[in-house]
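User: Teach me something about this protein's shape.
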Amino acid sequence: MGPDKTQLPPAIGAADPQRSGIGSDVSDTSLSEAVAILRKRWWIWFLAGVLGASYGFYKAVTQPRLFQADSTIEVHNGASNAYRLDTSSDYGDDSQTKMNTEVYILQSDTLLETVAREMDLANNPDFLGIPGPVQKRQSLSDPVVRANVVGELHGGLQVSLVARTQLIKISYVSLSPKLSADIVNHVVGAYIQRSFTAPEQQQELASSSLSDQLNILKDRVEKSQEEMMSLQRKLGVLGTDSKESQTQTSLGVLLGAEDTAKVERIRAESRYKMVEGMDPNAVEGSIEITPGTAPGELNNLRGQLAGVRAQYAQLTAPGGLGPNHPKVKALQDQINELTREITTEQDRVELQAKENYLATKAAEDKTGQEFEAQKKEAYDQGNDMVHLTVVQREYEQSRALYDGLQQRLETAKVEAGLDAVEVDTVDKAIPPLSPSLRPTPSIVLSTAVIFMLGGVVIAFIVESLDTGLHNIQEIEGLMNMPSLAVIPKSKRSSAEQTAAISTAQRNINVLTQPKSQFTEAFRSLQTSLLLATAGHPPKVILFTSATPSEGKTTAATNLASVLSQGGARVLLIDADLRRPNVHHRFGLTGKLGLTSVLAGSSTLEEALQRVPEMPNLDILPSGPVPPFPTEMLSSESMHALLERFRATYSYVVIDSPPILSVTDAVILGRVVDAVVLVIRHGKSNKSVMRRTRDLLARSGAPMAGIVMNAVDLNSPEYYGYYGYSGYSYGSMDGDSWTQSNDKGESSAGRTVKR
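Assistant: First, the predicted structure itself:
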């Protein structure tokens, strides 16, 4: 292994370059960056401002001569509320809501259509903006014509509230002063007319609806009344306040009669049972206390029988008359007759008690039957009474509702017209004397500002879509690598000068322009590389780029020339084995070179070449193009050859192929001390740089930094950023470089960031 290779530290705030995916793709946005973008894209917003001013001037010159007529009206409820039966307002205390509602009504399509019909605007040439009379009459019945006319009215009409008042301002703008005034006055007139007709129409609609409801309620009341009266007649109830019917009265009487008959039946039954079962001789004792009988007759017969038996006993007593005595026989016959009469009377009394019992029982049964019949009728009447109560309640409710609606209908008729909003015309619209024109400076300024703001937006959009890298700040932020130097565009010599110089002097600018910004930039690159690490400057330096034609060969050849001019022994190797170009820059032959040495077909001494202008510089061309360049560069022979160069030369500068094209530079990057990435200003973009950064980070190559090539130091991206202080250079000759007030000295002496 060779000596330790020196690697420059990454920029402050950057991630370790040995790891993949390092760095941030987007730098922090700041006000200074925004200002830089505006300076960079100044032509966009400046052009937009110029276009805006031009367009504004055109608008000011060509703006139509419009005439605006104004009218002011006052909207209030007036004194009509004093006559209202219901003083509650639909809007409550929110007068602002009411005023906003009136403004909307003034702008409504219906109101504007009314104005259009009154003024026949569909056929008004001033309104339509056509010269002369209308050839074909149009009707607002056509939806298209109506929409166009109402839309045109909307476009010219303006309705606004006057702050903290009940005033409304109506304005209309048109090409005719008289038409503007007429339209405003017709709008106010139509609005005033509507304020009176709309409440009346609403009241008529409400009255019509109430009348229909009243007719329905009236029929319902009449039907309920007829049904109620029919039930009252059926129940025998007089009036709606009667609580007791005839059936209920009869039911009470029958209930008392039933009780009385039951008592009489019980009495008669008990008398009959008593008479039937007692001793005939004891009948007279019970007969006395039994009402409805004739106890005296039976008692008289029994008294007569007792007297005759006494006489019979006296006559038949011993010593008296015998049984055959006629007088005795007469008494016996009388006794027999009285006995027969008593028996007959007893049978009659018993029969009378039985008949009385049967009569009372029949009376009780009849009374019970009547009571049951009346009770059933009372039950039926009870259901009818419930129905009657329901019908009465429905009748009363319908009657109350009917009376309420009838009163409301009368109230609505009285209040018709009181709901109208009172409108007073404060200022009537008159035709304006002069058109309303916006000041030309105001139009130009406002349009220019708007266009310029749009240009600023477009500038930022263009910047966000721009994937190019335009300054060191962007590249450093994207690559996370320090910038070693900024190489300005080289100024080629004239044809007369190139005819008298060698090929090396013609292609290597540092040889012919020692005091130019170009040469000073390479001296700055030399200083940045040699001072990268104290005590251990890199000896083997590899130059590469992301893509072809970025100037890596120019950077390598010119740096090798600057290093050799300092007295150090330098070797320049052309390791681009596919498209070698170093030998052409110095006017050398490429028959022998690196490939022939590695292949063993020639010795190193035979392959090395020199130019007279730089005696301390040895050049090793690429040699013949090999079939497998990558295998040759990664061989042990190549490593051994580099170790030999380390011991022989002070510095070894290698020109390698682009990184994204082939892997040769990645392979060589592992065995060198420092890798310098050359980026051509304005050529590379962000996606290419991201792939290059990731590839270098994964390879572990010792990245020293980046070199910006072919930079225009007078561009806004670099003006002031590097702080060029006007240090001037004199030209070697009068034609190659003119004395200029350059701003690149600070960049030329700038060292690597740490």
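Now, about its shape. The mean pLDDT is 77. The chain is about 55% helix and 10% strand. If you'd like, I can walk through any region in more detail.
User: That's plenty for now, thanks!
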